[in-house]
Amino acid sequence: MDYCDGLAPIVTTFGPGNLHHLAYSGGISGMQAVTGFLSTSTEGASYFLLGYSYYYAGFAFYWDGAGEAFFRLGNSTAPQAVGNSWTNATGVPENGEIILGLNVASTAASAANRGDATEGNFLVYRIPDNFNDLD
């Protein structure tokens, strides 16, 4: 499966933890890689939508939480495991094919850390359990 326009990964996590995201290999000369995370304190399931920026060609993510995590691409019915570190990340390098177990530790170490911020080119969104709670 390819990570492409209209097919964003949806990550399902169980228990509290952090979903980390890395955007790298910028198409614009001199563009620094960026990393960040979103946290959840939910004991049950949490859902995240991973976006992407046209400024970057490579992406990776991993879950450091208490429970399991998996992702589906678009409307796929086949869940796939999410990595648990930057040395064992779920990645989408420049060619667009999803790779499990990608080692992006050196890229993540030199990336600008955005913490839990979602602005700019760090694109992870928590999907609320109840859309009526968005007020």
What oligomeric state do the depicted chains represent?
single chain
Q: How many H/I helices?
A: 1
Strand order of the largest sheet: 9-8-5-2-3-10
List segments where confidence is low: pLDDT < 50 over at least 5 consecutive residues: 131-135
Count of domain modules: 1
| Chain-averaged pLDDT | 80
Secondary-structure-derived class:
mainly beta
- The fraction of residues assigned to DSSP E strands is 35-45%
Estimated radius of gyration:
14 Å
Major beta-sheet overview:
6 strands, mixed
Distance, first to last CA: 36 Å
Number of strands: 11
Q: What's the SSE pattern?
A: EEEEEEEEEHEE
Helix content: under 10%
Describe the global form. globular
Features:
mainly beta; six-stranded mixed sheet; five-stranded antiparallel sheet; 1 helix; 4% helix; disordered C terminus
Give an account of the 3D structure:
The protein is built from one helix and eleven strands; from the N terminus they run E-E-E-E-E-E-E-E-E-H-E-E. A hairpin with a 6-residue loop joins strand 8 (89-92) and strand 9 (99-102). It has one domain (9-134). The protein is mainly β. The protein has one helix at residues 105-109, and strands spanning 9-14, 17-26, 34-40, 45-50, 56-63, 69-73, 80-81, 89-92, 99-102, 112-113, 124-127. The chain is globular and about 40 Å long.
Question: Can you summarize this structure?
Answer:
The protein is mainly beta and 135 residues long. The chain has 1 helix and 11 strands.
